[in-house]
Protein 1
Amino acid sequence: MSAPAFPQPSAVKELAARLHGSVITPADPEYDEARRVWNAMIDRSPALIVRAADESDIAVSLAFARKHSLPLAVRSGGHNVAGHGTVEAGLLLDLRAFNEVTVDPERRLVQVGGGATLGELDRATSAHGLAVPVGVISQTGVAGLCLGGGFGWLTRTYGLTVDSLVAADLISAEGEAVHADAHANPELLWGLTGGGGNFGVVTSFTFTAHPLPPTLYAGNLIYHRARWHQALVALGDWATELPDEMTVIANVMVPPPEWDMGDEPILVVGFLWADPDHDAGAACVERFTRLAPPEIEDVSTVTWPEWQSVSDSIFPKGVRAYWKNTAFDSLSEEVINVLIARGAEQTWQGTAFDIHIMGGAMGRVPAEATAFPDRSSAFWLNIYGFWTDEEQDEHHVQFVRGFAHQMERFSTGGQYVNFSSNDERAPHGFDAFGVYGAEKLARLTALKRRYDPQNLLRLNHNIAVPDVDTDAAIP
Ligand code: FAD
C-alpha cells in the first residue's frame, strides 16, 4: 500500500474555512489528547482531526478525504477495541459534538446524536422513567455500540440496542443526507442493526424507550476459586428458567485493590432485575443462591444511571486492550473446566472474562430481523484484556487468543464485532463471511454498493466491495 499523501497546509486552511467546527493538526497543543482513543495499544497519528459541528461539516470532511485520498476514521465514544476510532496519517472525523438527546415521553421515543455517550442517553431517559437497552460502561459511544448490536443490563428484558432502533439519519459516504426508517429506506435501517459504520456517518438515531422503575434491584454475588464449579453449574441451571426481567452477567477477574478482596481472581455473578416488584427479584436470585451460596453478597436498590456507571472506574481510558468473544450453548462440564482453568490463570489485574446469559427478549427476535450475526446461543463469552504495561502486551494478547481458540470447539457460530479486536487470521483483520454468513453478508454488500461504492468508510469491521481494491487493511 502506498502511503497516503499528506494534505498541503493551504488545503487544510481551505477546509477549516468551510467548517463550522474546528480542525486540529499535529501543530496544535490539543492534538495529542484529541487523537487518543480508549485502547492505548492503538497509538495513531492522524494528519488532521475534524471536530464536526453539523451535517455540513461531515459532508465537507468526507469530500475532503476522498479528494486527497486520505484514509478516514469516524469516532464517537472512541471505545472501539479494534482501534477503528482513529487512523494513521488520515482524517479523523470526531462526532462528539453530536451529543444531544431528546426524549418524547408521550410517544416513548428518544432521539440520540451520533456522538452521544451511553451516560448522556441514560441520564436523559431515566428522568422520564424510561430506558434504552445499551452497554454497561457510561463513557462508551451509543453510535459504535448500536451499529454493532449492543449488549447490556437490559438485554434479556428489552433486547439488544439495535432491537429498539426505529430510525436513523445519516450522511452517506457520497455526502448524501439519508433518512432510514420502516418506510423510507428500510433495508438501510436493517443494515444499521449490526452492519457497523459501513454505510454512512450517522448523525442521529431514534430509539423506542422502555419503561423502567425509579429504583432497580441489582447486585453482585461473589465466589472464591473453590466455589466456582458449584456456582457455574448453578448458573447453567438458573439460565434455563430466567424470566425476562432478569439479566445476568457473570465475570471472573482479579478485584481492583479498592475492593479490598485480595489479589486472587474471583467469580462475580452480577444481576439486574428490571421490574418494580423487588420481592419477585429477590425470590428469583434465591433460586440461584440456594444452589450456590455466595461468599460475599452485595445487593442493593439503585437508579438506572447509578448502576450504569458502577463499573466505569475499572475501565479507564488509556489502558491497553485486546478482546475476543465466542457464543456457546451449554455450561457443560467441559466448558466449565476450561473457564475455571483459564480464570485461575488470570492472576494479574486487568484481564477478565464475562459470561452473558442470552435468551429472553433478545433471543425471541427473528434471526433475519436484524443484521446482528447470531441470536440462537444460550451464552456469550467475552474475554477482555486491559492492562497498562506495554511490556506485557505479548503475554496478555496471547492469553486472550489462547483462551478464545480453546473455546472454539464449543462455539455455536457468529461473533460479536464490538467485542473483537482484529482477527489475526483474517486477511484484513476481519472475516465478514465467518461473522455474518452468506445471506446477511450478501444484503450488507448490496447496501455497501449503494451507499459507499468506493469503500471510503473502510476503517471498521469492513464490508468490502468485491471489485473495488481499497486495501481494507489501512492502519
Ligand atoms: P468509536 O471508536 O468512537 O467508534 C467505533 C466505530 O463505530 C467507528 O470506527 C465507526 O466505524 C463507527 N462509528 C462510530 N460513530 C459513528 C457514527 N456516528 N456513524 C457511523 N459510524 C460510526 N459493547 C456492548 O455491546 N456492551 C457493553 O457493555 C460494552 N462495554 C464496553 C466497555 C468498554 C470499556 C469498551 C472499551 C467497550 C465496550 N463495548 C461494549 C464495546 C463497544 O460497543 C464497542 O467498542 C463500540 O465500537 C464502541 O463504540 P464507540 O462509539 O465508543 O467507539
Protein 2
Amino acid sequence: MRIGMLGGMFDPVHIGHLRPALEFHARLALDELRLVPCATPGHRETAALPAEERVALVEAAIADIDGIVVDDRELKLPPPSYTVQTLRDMHAENGEASYILGMGEDAFRGFCRWKEWEAILDLADIVVMHRPGTAEELDPEVATLLESRRVALEAIGKQVGRIATLEVTPLAVSSTAIRAMLARGEDPKFLVPEAVRQRILDNRYYMNGKAG
Ligand code: ATP
C-alpha cells in the first residue's frame, strides 16, 4: 500500500494545495493521500482560524474526491506538531505500507531545520512539488541532500530516504494572499472550491481585518 502525506496549516485550504494534491495522488499511484492539518507550525505562532474550522474546510474541499482523506491526528496532540512523530505513528499503525511525504518547494527549502529530519528519511520518501514564486537556489545543506538522494519519480515508494521532484500545474496561490483578500473584503472565488468559499463567507472567516 502506498500512502501519501501532505501536511500544512490549510488556513484556509486552496486550489494551490488541492490541484497539486490530486496530481501527486495520480502520478504516484497512491492508494491514499492524507492531508494532515498541523496544530502550530514552526514559522507562525498561531493559525488565523481554529483547528476544527480548518479541518472542516478541508473536509468540504475533498468531500467528493476518492482516495484523498483528512487526517486530523496532529490536532489531537499538544502542539507543536512534528512530521517525524506523525510518520512514526503511521508506521506503528501499518508498518507494511510505504509512506511518501509530499511538500511544496518552499517547505522543502526549510527541511533541514525540521525536527529529526534525518529520521524522517528513514521513514518515508519525499516528493517535492513545484511552487511558483519559490527562489531557485537552495541552501547548501538542502541542495546537497537533494543531490545525494534524488531519484526519478518512478523509483519513489520502493525504499525510504529517496527524493524526487514533481512538476505540478503552477498555481501562485497562498493562504496568506487569500486571508489578505478576505480582510480587504474581496471574494476569493475560484481560488478555493465553492464549498470552501461558501463556508468562509457564511461564517465571515478572516474578515476581521487580521490577515494573519
Ligand atoms: P501560508 O500562506 O499561510 O504560509 P500556504 O499557502 O503556504 O500558507 P500551507 O498550508 O502552509 O499553505 O502549505 C501546506 C503545503 O502545501 C506546503 O508543503 C506548501 O509548500 C504546499 N503548497 C501550498 N500552496 C502551494 C502552491 N500554490 N503550490 C504548490 N504547493 C503549495
